Amino acid sequence: MELNTIKDAFDRVSKKQKLSASKSQEVIDQVGFEIDQALAKVQSANDSCSTVDQKSILTELKRKLDPIGPLQQFEVTQKELNISLSKYQKLLDKCFNSDISKAYRNVDFDFHTVNQIIANHFYQQGLFDIGDCFINEAVEPEAPMLKSQFLEICHILEAMRVRNLQPALNWVSANSENLQQNGSSLELKLHRLQFVEILMKGNRSDALNYAKTYIAPFADRHFDKVKKLMGCLVFAKRLDSSPYSKLTAASHWEKLTEELKRQFCSLLGQSYESPLSVAIAAGIEGLPTLLKLANVMAVKQQDWQTMKQLPVPVELGREFQFHSIFVCPVSRDQASEENPPMLMPCLHVLCKQSIMKLSKSNSVRSFKCPYCPADVLVAQCRRLYF
Predict the structure, then answer these.
(1) According to the model, what pLDDT value does residue 27 have?
(2) Whole-prediction pTM value?
(3) How many independent structural domains does the chain possess?
């Protein structure tokens, strides 16, 4: 069942819940109003030493509350809401398999690697206390190295949040050559941001001196950008209302923060996205297919735990595609070092094992390409590298 159906059902339940709450509040307000009126009469009678009988006031209150019937109204609205919730729960049970343990597969894990991935996740998120606690519990000896890699970037990012670029500038200066090899202009962007901050404070002389010291060395490679910064000097103290006002946008800080983190992780040989987060996200996306497969295999009384390869593809989004792979269109096997992709003269590609089967392992015997009328010899096939 499509997610739109579930969303529509959720919207109906949400609407029913709001209506129930509104009706209940209306009844509560009516009852509260009558009680306040009765209390006011009792207080007035006590203040004026009136002979009005309190019992008669309460009798009148009961007479007014009976038509309202608060308990009956609560029961009706609550019953309608419970019916909607019950239907929604049945729909969820029908659409989703709550027992996700069926998708579990016995796999031999390298627990040392898994522990490092979990610890890395905590350190990369800046949760150093939690990471230390986990490492101590897991008894991982390489913890100090994992932690030290992210302490520096955490300090740099915290400084940037308060508009302090000095730690970031120190880091890019120390890693200037590596950043250039990566084709990154991060160093210039940080100096540009610092130049703009100085200029916005109105100190044209300090901004010019900063440009001569730190930005001028980039003029031969980024002349247009440097020229634009020099034009900003004319608009000291009013840069935000000048033709260069885009340079003052807060989004530059956000983008540079992300770029700095990416470059930092790249130079450390670490992934920008936490591997643990990626693995969990991919697992969530592939879980419905795995659960369906497990149910089908259970009906056929087959054990999918013993399979070396899943009989159906688990489709994941492009965000989970990190490197090129090739799957043979004939055998459906994924290419490997032992079974590499081979380009045929007709420009179609098959895996080596498929080619050997089609040629019956005869290098001088031609065979027909499965996708066109071309005749192919094994010797004419060339290995492809992705």
Answers:
(1) 87
(2) 0.55
(3) 3
